[in-house]
Amino acid sequence: MSFQFEQGEILLIDKPINWTSFDVVGKIRSLIRKREKIRKIKIGHAGTLDPLASGLLILCTGKFTKRIEEFQGLEKEYTGTFRLGSTTPSFDLETEVDRIFHGALPGESEIREATVHFTGALEQIPPQFSAIKIDGKRAYESARKDIPVEINARKVTIEAFEITRVELPDVDFRVVCSKGTYIRSLARDFGNHLGCGAHLTALCRTRIGSYWLRDAFGMDDIVSLLPPKSWDTQECFY
User: Fold this and answer.
1) What pLDDT does 226 receive?
2) Counting CB atoms within 10 angstroms of each CB, which of 28, 70, 184, 196 has the fewest?
3) Which is the catalytic residue, given 14, 50, 92, 189?
4) Which domain holds residue 46?
5) Which residue ranges in the chain fall short of pLDDT 70?
6) 8 A C-beta contact, residue 157 and residue 178
7) Torsion over CA of 33, 37, 42 and 48, rounded to 10 degrees?
8) What three-state secondary structure class fits 221?
9) Distance between CA atoms of 68 and 76, rounded to whole angstroms?
């Protein structure tokens, strides 16, 4: 397969769980530098995925890095799982459960009907455990030190929110949403609305605009597609 990385390429990557988006960029940058025998290559991603999330990550190289903002603004689609009846400070599995709600969980019909309250234009407060900058610092830096910070609500749009499976306490979902939507915050708000709490236990980004996860390369695929042009590692830049 032929690539023109300096002229510009769009790479669709299936980010694995426990990799940061920066890890993916760093790995692919290293592969490109070794393959092309160049010291520098512009490369960036168009929308962060949390380490515990998997799915579609768009990478732009060379002159196409100017298009990153364009891709960031595209509609996103996610699938995943909420766990009802308990909460965590980070709204996902990054932190331990801090509250368990005792008593019966809501029924399937109530769970499905609750989705209508979270579609359309919404005001959403991002998580304390997020990369949003507050006074020059990432919010998660303060959150990990148990220092509360004030994060203002943001306008987001959720075009579709459907429940695809109910097997309590777990609830699977599909969400189509605008840039800036936090699915972890949706888990918090959904649980609050149902009165039983909830947190996110799985998340996968399946689509960005017209780009689909099914067309993405896995990290193993990328390693195979971008071998060094020479196996003489002394000639390669690191």
Assistant:
1) 84
2) 70
3) 50
4) 10-73+211-235
5) 1, 129-145, 147, 229-238
6) yes
7) -10
8) helix
9) 15
Q: Within this chain, do residues 169 and 91 fall inside the same structural domain, yes or no?
A: yes
Residue 199's φ and ψ, nearest 5 degrees, are: -145, 160
Q: Are 182 and 127 in contact (CB under 8 A)?
A: yes
Strands 54-61 and 198-208: parallel
> Is 2 contained in some domain?
no
**Are residues 216 and 140 part of one domain?**
no
Report the distance separating Cα 69 and Cα 67, nearest Å: 6
* Total of domains in the chain: 2
Helix (H/G/I), strand (E/B), else coil: 86:
strand
The CA dihedral of 12, 14, 17, 22, to the nearest 10 degrees, is: -20
Per-residue b or e along 190-209, where b marks 16 or more CB atoms closer than 10 Å to that residue's CB? bbeebebbbbbbbbbbbbbe
**Are 107 and 223 in a shared domain?**
no
Q: Of 197, 195, 213, which is closest to residue 205 (Cα–Cα)? A: 213
In a domain, 98, yes or no: yes
Q: What is the CATH number of the domain that holds 198?
A: 3.30.2350.10
Residue 163 lies in a domain: yes
Q: Clarify whether residues 112 and 37 are in a common domain.
A: no
Q: Are residues 191 and 221 in the same domain?
A: no
On whether both 88 and 138 belong to a single domain, the answer is yes
Residue 62's pLDDT is: 94
Asked, for residue 4, whether it belongs to a domain, the answer is: no
Q: Distance between CA atoms of 225 and 48, rounded to whole angstroms? A: 24
Catalytic annotation on 232? no
Sign of CA dihedral 18, 170, 97, 153: positive
